[in-house]
Amino acid sequence: MARVLTPRAEDFPRWYQDLIAKAKLADNGPVRGTMVIRPAGYAIWERMQAEMDARIKAAGAENAYFPLFIPESYLKREAEHVEGFSPELAVVTHGGGKQLAEPVVVRPTSETVIGEFMAKWIDSYRDLPLLLNQWANVVRWELRPRIFLRTSEFLWQEGHTAHATREDARGYARQILHDAYEDLMVNVLGIPVVVGLKTARERFAGATATYTCEGMMGDGKALQLGTSHELGQNFAKAFDISYSSKEGGREHAWTTSWGTSTRMLGGLIMAHGDDNGLRVPPKVAPIQAYVMIVKDGEGVGEAAAKLRDALRDAGVRVALDDRTDTAFGRRAVDAELRGYPVRVEVGPRDLAAGNAVVVRRTDGSKAPTPVADVVGAVLAALEADQRALHDQALEFRRSRTVEVSTLAEAIEAAATGWAMVPWSAVGAPGEAEANGQGVTVRCLLRADGSVPDSEDEPDLVAILARAY
């Protein structure tokens, strides 16, 4: 295999940028901080989107769409919210050749505009819970952009819900956290995530609690892959989201919001990629099996097409590469770069022996396989490699996570991975000290690994790490 990427161990950020460019996943947009997602990258995002959308709908939420432009006055109604987002806002002051009477903000998130319409649509307890989700783009002006990880414009889903009680709101925020986010990240993306509570310092602006899914990347750093927020009654009071209770009184609703974005694609690259390129978990791969004609020969094209059709009939997402006018080695390198889980190579010599060669991206193995057995071999490989990628990532995380007892030890350990330290040994002052050295508290856990309700609970464990 010719070297086409900077080795990860030599320069991980350079490897990441090389892979995105060489695998034709994305490119920088014309405005600093924006990105163009190319077809190969967007196809993976579409698979993620479909899987996530199914889980969100299974949780009872319905898709809607809200405006890109939000009156500036809306954001100012919730003081903590506007303060948290002010440095990142893109504000439009002119339109149609004239100065606008009121500036409008390009949405950084939609709690305020959706809150306005929740107040309009909710009248009685019978209208609750109101469970909404939208797939959209948002803009947060980014000073240090990196494709998929931090861009000024990115794609995401954002869910917004209103409930009659705090308990119902908390239960739903946790349901999305576990049944939609954690399930997709672990069982589809193959990324073992730690699910926990954000500290007050790291909490979403205007929320009363933020829950997070944190994944370890291939250099030992953390990546926040999705968050779910309890908003209490903060936005309900700011936007008068209220309802008539069963008892006849007027009550403010309890709201939540939650989101995942194209950052998951960056996480997929960094959690599973190797020095040869992407390794895409089969469940999210747009192309699961790539049938390749090695070179022309009698019956080769027909055999390859039959294998493609048989794989498609078996439910495999499959593509056929019959570009014999391009060198096979170059095509094989491109297939490795793009991370197709399985390649089925069909050439005259193997076919004469009744075989095709099944190549697995995860471990690089190549197995001559009777043509009649190829479909079964591919299905088995897809199932095994979905599990293998998760298990490899989990073992890597375990090898790079240490338990320590002091803040100083945690900061030192964060140079190469994650540190687990008693939260009582850190606290708010220690968190500020760690932040000054580029280390953050990623989340808090109970001793048994479950998600706490509050950072004030006793005997909590903090995970400290450097992060993207």
From TrEMBL:
Residues 32-281 form the Aminoacyl-transfer RNA synthetases class-II family profile domain. It is an enzyme of class 6 (ligase). It catalyses: tRNA(Pro) + L-proline + ATP = L-prolyl-tRNA(Pro) + AMP + diphosphate. InterPro entries: aa-tRNA-synt_IIb, aa-tRNA-synth_II, aa-tRNA-synth_II/BPL/LPL, Anticodon-bd, Anticodon-bd_dom_sf, Pro-tRNA-ligase_IIa, Pro-tRNA-ligase_IIa_arc-type, Pro-tRNA_ligase_II_C. Transmembrane segments: none annotated. It is found in: Cytoplasm. GO terms for molecular function: ATP binding; proline-tRNA ligase activity. GO terms for cellular component: aminoacyl-tRNA synthetase multienzyme complex; cytoplasm. It comes from the Bacteria. CDD domains: ProRS_core_arch_euk. Its EC number is 6.1.1.15. GO terms for biological process: prolyl-tRNA aminoacylation. Consists of three domains: the N-terminal catalytic domain, the anticodon-binding domain and the C-terminal extension. Homodimer. PANTHER family: PROLINE--TRNA LIGASE, CHLOROPLASTIC_MITOCHONDRIAL, PROLYL-TRNA SYNTHETASE. This is Proline--tRNA ligase. It comes from Micromonospora auratinigra.
